[in-house]
Amino acid sequence: MRLAALFTVYNGLELLPKAVENAKKWADEVLICYQNTSNKGEINPYVGDFCEALGVKCFEFTPDLTVNTKQNERVKHSMMVQKAKELGFSHAVLMASDHFYTTEQVKWAKADVTANDWDVTATAMHTYYKHPTWRVDPMEDYFMPFIFALRPNTTVERVPSFPWRVDPSVQVNTCQRSRMYAPDEVLLHHYSMVRVDVAEKFRNAAASIRWKPEQVAAFIDEFERADLGMAVSYFGGRVLVSAEDLFTIGHDTP
């Protein structure tokens, strides 16, 4: 197996160096696809320079602002899959700046994928909120594709019969042989809401096509008021519980 960690990046830069450092422990190479323009048209001219400074292969993506955010995400992910195939990788993992996996679990999964020739695997996730030591409980009821094989025809597209409930912008079309890992086998640690500027995240998130301005204002207010034990409406009433800072992220830890 030759495994690529494929990062797509616009915001969440405060987490990216740690995420890349983590991925280097289990991937053969890290590739970054960055945007200086978000899918919503917001511009940060420094994203590319920030990514290039991490010393990995970087590629720029310019979104088509005439299509929705999810379509731009699919196009961007498909571009990264094609880059990985051109560079000779056999497998890949789609990553974001807030995605972390433990090295031991990934190494175990790599052996399992090699032995069983899975087209695609997936994991459940722990989701973190505001601080790397605050987690929502119970787990969310959707999943994240994990290691997938780069077949000659592999691309990212909407798949009506995809094996699990995942974000439609990360579905791969080669998914006949699949495995969902149990949480004690492999788990994504998703620092989705550990952000310095949560308003900027809400303005530019791919999911923002679903939100009305008053909903975003309520989400931001809830974030600012958050405390352990609180039920978070953004996560369907899941409760904030204490968690270990597994990856020594340290960002804004209380």
Name the descriptors.
6 helices, three-stranded antiparallel sheet, 254 residues, globular, alpha/beta, Spore Coat Polysaccharide Biosynthesis Protein SpsA, Chain A, nine-stranded mixed sheet
What oligomeric arrangement do these chains adopt? single chain
Q: What is the total tally of β strands? A: 12
Question: In CATH terms, what is the architecture?
Answer: Alpha-Beta Complex
Radius of gyration over C-alpha positions, nearest whole angstrom: 17 Å
Helices and strands: which structural class?
A: alpha/beta
Q: Biggest β-sheet: count, sense, barrel?
A: 9 strands, mixed
CATH class: Alpha Beta
Q: What's the domain count?
A: 1
Q: What is the overall silhouette?
A: globular
Query: What value does the average pLDDT take?
Result: 94
Strand residue percentage? 15-25%
| Element-level helix/strand string | EHEHEHEEHEEEEEHHEE
Unreliable spans = none
Instruction: State the separation between the terminal residues, measured CA to CA.
Output: 40 Å
Helix content: 25-40%
Q: What is the CATH fold-level name? A: Spore Coat Polysaccharide Biosynthesis Protein SpsA, Chain A
Number of helices: 6
